[in-house]
UniProtKB/TrEMBL annotation, chain A:
This is Ferredoxin. Ferredoxins are iron-sulfur proteins that transfer electrons in a wide variety of metabolic reactions. It comes from Streptomyces albospinus. PANTHER family: FERREDOXIN. Transmembrane segments: none annotated. Keywords: 3Fe-4S, Electron transport, Iron, Iron-sulfur, Metal-binding, Transport. The keyword Metal-binding applies. It comes from the Bacteria. SUPFAM superfamilies: 4Fe-4S ferredoxins (SSF54862).
TrEMBL record, chain B:
Pfam families: p450 (PF00067). It comes from the Bacteria. InterPro entries: Cyt_P450, Cyt_P450_B, Cyt_P450_CS, Cyt_P450_sf. Residues 1-22 are annotated as: Disordered. Belongs to the cytochrome P450 family. This is Cytochrome P450. Keywords: Heme, Iron, Metal-binding, Monooxygenase, Oxidoreductase. PANTHER family: CYTOCHROME P450 YJIB-RELATED, P450, PUTATIVE (EUROFUNG)-RELATED.
Amino acid sequence: MKVTIDEDRCVGAGQCVLAAGDVFDQRDEDGIVVLLDPTPSGARLVEVEEAAASCPALAITVER
Amino acid sequence: MSEMQHVTERQPVTRTCPFDPPAEYRTLRDEAPIAEVTLPDGATGWLVSRYADVRAVLADPRFSARRRPLRTAAADAPVPPPPTGWFIMMDAPEHTRFRRLLTGQFTVRRMRQLAPAVERIVAEHLDAMAAAGGPVDLVHAFALPIPSLVICELLGVPYADREEFQRNSATLLRIDAAPEEVQEAQTAMNAYFRRLAADKRAEPGDDILSELVQSGELTEEELAGVGVLLLVAGHETTANMIALATMCLLRNPGQLAALRADPSLMDGAVEELLRYLSVIQYGVRRTAREDVELDGHRIPAGSLVVAALPSGNRDTTQFPGDPEQLDVSRTSRSHLAFGHGIHQCLGQQLARVEMKAALSALFARFPDLRLAVPVEEVPMRDDMIVYGVHELPVTW
């Protein structure tokens, strides 16, 4: 699985961190998404897809 | 255009159960999910009631956040300009400038670090309730002070000033407030924040207002507007969720028992209560900037569009099983209670921390908590932008 993020779209809501905290984090200074793991293992698929689906700014893309 | 569009001609406002949105929303979702209706303030608008359409509207930049606010006493008045600094009514890129100044203050990590402090405040208020003895009004003894204290601390607002700002903030949230009342409350709060900002400039503290002042990014008037917005949004919404969720759990004893038996359900229960109760009861308004085609409907430029969050949160296509039932074991973080799109609630991680701390400790401390009046006598907030209870008499 390959995950990409769009920092410009990100609004810092933190939904991705709640859904998949091992894959996404937020920068302390402005809350913008940080991708911890661009190629998470298949075991994380459900939580990563939830992160992408719950992102209010549609800033996360997941390629399976 | 089908005749189904005329299933209802008004945005539904009358509830038959205090925890459910008006029942007509079910028919709307089935038969007229995008319907041109008369809104509670007499304006005409497009009411969007399905989950997918609500999300689509709120994520679509063709719908502007600048809109006619819901004010039943100002139906014919021209749309007032948004208060300076109120970025919930701005579009990108103007909105981005404000939001980016603040998102770092409300990250998941920062809010989780606040949890012990929130838990302390919760415990102090439960001690005071226990010492006073029941019955008490849970809103004034518990649900309102907790988020008020926390947001005051974060912003750097003296909690001692709460009487004035709680009164003004209540005025801003009354849908029947007269335009001059709204103006007066707004002016008073802005003046208060301008004074406070001047204090912070002279003597900075470890708080959001001081940081904003020092950043030099905002004019005085913008700073005051942001302060008012964060203060109002930061205490009213969570206060109402805490009180209404308490009442709802007391009226769903099976769900409360499940939660007490397994506290690990609490995170999910908070999400479920947010979904189920959806306190932004009249939905979120937008204005079409251009003609937009939405599911076969042509929404002309300039139209007011209402994204009905409470209705979307009861949509069976998104929430399998029976979304009309409270189910604390449901996993429903993709609910719409915090909105969707670039304006999704900035303080949502704080709200989660506060709700979890408040509800966990309240039910643990008072195992026999119960309503002190018949449920029909609880005054519901049908008259407010944010739903909930005006008072919640409880005893134990």
